[in-house]
Design brief:
By secondary structure, this protein is α/β, with parallel strands linked by helices. It has two domains: about 220 residues, Alanine racemase (TIM Barrel, Alpha-Beta Barrel); about 130 residues, Beta Barrel (Lyase, Ornithine Decarboxylase, Chain A, domain 1). It is about 25% helix and about 25% strand. It contains ten helices and 19 strands. Strands 1, 12, 13, 14, 15, 16, 17, 18 and 19 form a nine-stranded mixed beta sheet that branches. Strands 2-3-4-5-6-7-8-9 form an eight-stranded parallel beta barrel, surrounded by six helices. A hairpin with a 4-residue loop joins strand 10 and strand 11. Helix 1 crosses helix 2, helix 4 packs across helix 5 and helix 6 packs across helix 7. This is Alanine/ornithine racemase family PLP-dependent enzyme. Pfam families: Ala_racemase_N (PF01168). InterPro entries: Ala_racemase, Ala_racemase_N. It comes from Pseudonocardia oceani.
Length: about 375
Amino acid sequence: MTAPRIDTDLGKIEQNTRTLADRLGVRGIRVTGITKAVMGSPGVGAAMLRGGAHGLGDSRVPNLVRLSGLDRAVSRTLIRSPMLSQAARVVDVADVSLNTEAAVLVALDRAASRAGRTHGVVLMVELGDLREGIAVDDVPEAVLAVLRHPGLRLLGLGANLACQNGVVPDDRNMGVLTALVEDVESLRGITLGTVSGGNSANLGWAMGTDDVGRIDELRLGEAILLGVDPLHRTPIPGLHTDAFTLTAEVIEVAVKPAQPWGDRAQAAFGEAPVRTGSGRVHQAILALGRQDVDPEGLHPPAGIAILGMSSDHLVVDIGDHGVAVGDEIDFGVAYGALVRAMTSPFVTRTEHPGDPVPERPGPRVRIPSSAGW
């Protein structure tokens, strides 16, 4: 098979979704599966829906287009504030969008009216992470503005934490959102059917609090895809953490000095990596680079250490592993590595249905394909 490639086990995605949907469901919270890290993969989206996701969301319009072949009864949400220039396209491909800007709401209203449809709106509230969000005091007026647009339907309020500045969802900030929803409903004489509390970073709060208030939706991507809590990147009990495997081919194997020699300046991507140790290193180079993946998010097999990465070369210490040119090595991936690998035109994306199975210990070294595992 072509390398580098990233393989997705759809069965594990489905099982992770089901586990989280079941755990949150008993607390009255539904799951919207987020596909932005996988380029709006229809296979991943379908696996999330099979696992109990209530709807799907993505941050990019082209990704929502890729999801358009799935069940149209399932809501598709644009989870990044729409670009003004894309208002008509957003109305065409998304049932719902998350919004903060009055000018964008006007454009969405006009586009929806021209298309003869109604577009769902969730207004995002700023709760401290300083990314998107309307100031709490300004929300009642923003609600009124949406209600005045005939082409728009106000679904509810939402928030996003932890993405920009790492602000942790807790009883205080989620309580602010609940109180705001109730104030708006009382003031405007309406009922809001969606209170979107946040993303995968909200899971610890949602599963640990005594009262989730009015929060009835979470937008989950990383937790479903990688089985980890984004706040600390720790595994979530009961979830698969190895639904994705990044495979690269070895193009050189040699024993080289542990330390470089000669006068040194910056390397291709800034400061040169610090190499430790002395003597000689059993070193391999793989056809994988920073154009393909974030090296900080690669998890090599046991006994293999990453020494450095340039645009097109990944250099590793293979230790005692018997690796030859043409062999392949499998890596686990963290979120940043997953996103970059999925968006690289040089990485082949593959998916297989694979029934959910117990997790294997970790990535493995692939010896020549004729030898098997």
